Amino acid sequence: MALGVRALDLFAPVRQGQRLGLFAASGVGKSTLLAMLAGGAAPDVIVFALVGERGRELREFIEDDLGPDRLARSVVICATSDTAAPVRREAAYAAMTVAEHFRDRGRQVLLLMDSVTRFALAAREIGLAVREPPATRGYPPSVFTELPRLLERAGPGEEGCAGAITALFTVLVEGDDHDEPVADAVRGILDGHVVLDRRIAEAGRYPPVDVLRSLSRTAPAVLDPHERPLVAEARRLLSTYGEVKDLVRLGAYRPGNDPEADAAVRLAPAIEQVLSQPKGEASDPGRAFAALAAAMSEQG
Question: Beta strands of the chain (E only): which ranges?
């Protein structure tokens, strides 16, 4: 499924029926990325589950980011942060049920849930209210039982059903700790993860996807044979550039000592430029791979 975001279509491609997590701290750009996905992807139906969102941000998202055209093919289920914990918990289940309704009728559904973390917080609040003993960082065991019950419902339909639920779940990592209990549990259930990095956002590149830490487990089956080496080479160049860029800034880097580092210093900025994408711009995988190939063929 083409998502319309170059960073994802290139380095974390998604197939129909896949479940992917978007991991980020607060204020990094999860909601903006969801708006880009709503405008760039082309499923039959989009289902939004906005769990624990701020009321002002919710109205802004519906009226400004979606607009009448996108809203016409969307279903929005929301429970703002001031609603009771059972309402926030059931909003996620209601959205999943709506997505299953369209999937079972042969539709391709894109489910965007923001966020699984607030769903888990609502489940924790309910568990503690019934005096369930807290376990990991204050989360009772029932939270980690509910997460797979919710997330595993997304995916392809039963045999003979042409529909599928392609789901992207945002995960709010506290203090940029990607190993906190909810994030760790969700990462083990889903078919891949996309990491949004605050440092990349502060540097001015949007969407701030850290492609080196992002992974789609279905990428080998999604990418064409000629695309796989291109993506692997781009990853290698970006990784090498990350190792030497501090030396470049300090003026301590000497060209000619390491051909691989020389290529990374020359080509990585062009690759980063390909990954940069304005909010209102939609792309497609064909153009994205053509742009990446052109950036990597530049000669200094």
Answer: 19-24, 45-53, 74-80, 108-114, 155-156, 164-172, 192-195, 215-216
